[in-house]
Amino acid sequence: MNETVTLAHGAGGRQTAELIDRVFKEHFSNPDLTSDDAAVLSVEKGRLAFTTDGFIVSPAEFPGGNIGKLSICGTVNDLSCMGAKPLYLSCAFVIEEGFPMDKLETIARSMAATAKEAGVEIVAGDTKVAGKGQVDGVFITTTGIGRVQEDVETSGKKAEPGDAVIVSGDIGRHGCTILLEREDFGIDADVTSDCAPLWGAVEDMLSVTKDIHVIRDATRGGVGTVLYEIAGQSQVGIRLRSEDIPVQENVKGVCGMLGLEPLYLACEGRLVIFAPKEHAEAIVEKLRQGKYTKDAAIIGEVTEEMPGRVVMTTEIGAETLLPEPRGELLPRIC
Questions:
Q1: Rounded CA gap, 101 and 279, in Å?
Q2: Would you give the DSSP letter of residue 294?
Q3: How far, rounded to the nearest angstrom, does the alpha carbon of residue 288 sit from its chain's CA centroid?
Q4: Residue of 111, 118, 132 lying closest to 69 (CA atoms)
Q5: What sections of the sequence does the record tag as coiled-coil (predicted)?
Q6: Predicted model pTM
Q7: In this structure, how many other beta carbons lie within 10 angstroms of the beta carbon of residue 200?
């Protein structure tokens, strides 16, 4: 078999079957994985969450993960934010002619391991091969189905004055990691992406209380963009305390040198949570026991004042309006 992907691998003939057998069936095998035109699945009675996401990250490999791990985490986390236990995923690959087969296997292996950790099955997929230069290496689209847990209803429209604002860990690491991998700044910083599947974290929170109003993963645009989205959807104000926002020291250092704000750097393993103040401490205490959420913290509160705006209280007690995100945010993640 060729050691790079060729156009013949996308033609639907023998080479396509070889590619699917060698790479995808080898790593994604489970009782529901289908060779037919669609997977037929059993789903318990109740509400379903359904989402899809595309991944074109460059570079495709980075400290802490690769595009395969990211494609599973991104969709699993979107389902989890709706209070839905992830059940099934499909994945579609667009692969550039000449892409190394061993790198494709590494991506598939990473996807399989992350799906297993998240407790989700990859049950269907599609493979296309594009000509040289038509795509940058490999693009992946994943679609997911999850079962919404009973009595759980989360939405960006449900934030209420008096809610505590919680983050599930230190922020900005994924964006900082990609920036350092992509650009030659001559900065030597030990920064690793926070990319992680987060259904376990959501399940932990729901074991404390199901009275959680908003859960959102802070991907493109980071925590700051998410907060502005929620402030707008719910027409509330948000007040943050800068000293309570967890940021890894190495990320602070890089941001200081490059003039970047960690609140606007992407995360791939961090949740932003809005919950009634009386539950906030218990939620944070539970999260801090988790694998990916040891640095969870309450960073602010929801107010009636200045609806649609986010205000930051600085370490010296001054208040400043957090800039609303506009235009191209750096680094461009996808």
A1: 49
A2: T
A3: 19
A4: 111
A5: none
A6: 0.93
A7: 17
Residues in the chain: 334
pLDDT at 185: 72
Tell me what pLDDT residue 45 has.
86
Distance CA 74, CA 72 (A): 6
Cα gap 35→307, rounded to integer Å:
51
19-38 per-position pLDDT tens digit: 888 899 889 989 999 888 89
How buried is residue 46: exposed, middle or buried, by Cβ count under 10 Å (0-12/13-18/19+)? Answer: exposed
SS3 content of the chain, % helix, strand, coil (to 5): 35, 25, 40
Residue 195 CA to residue 108 CA, distance in Å, equals: 16
Please write the tens of the pLDDT for every residue from 280-291: 999 999 999 999
Measured between its terminal Cα atoms, the distance across the chain in Å is 32
Helix, strand or coil, per DSSP, at residue 53: strand
Report d(CA 144, CA 283) in Å as an integer.
Answer: 26
Amino acid identity, position 94: V
Structure tokens at 41: 């699945």
Residue type, 118: A
Segment 72-95 mean pLDDT: 97
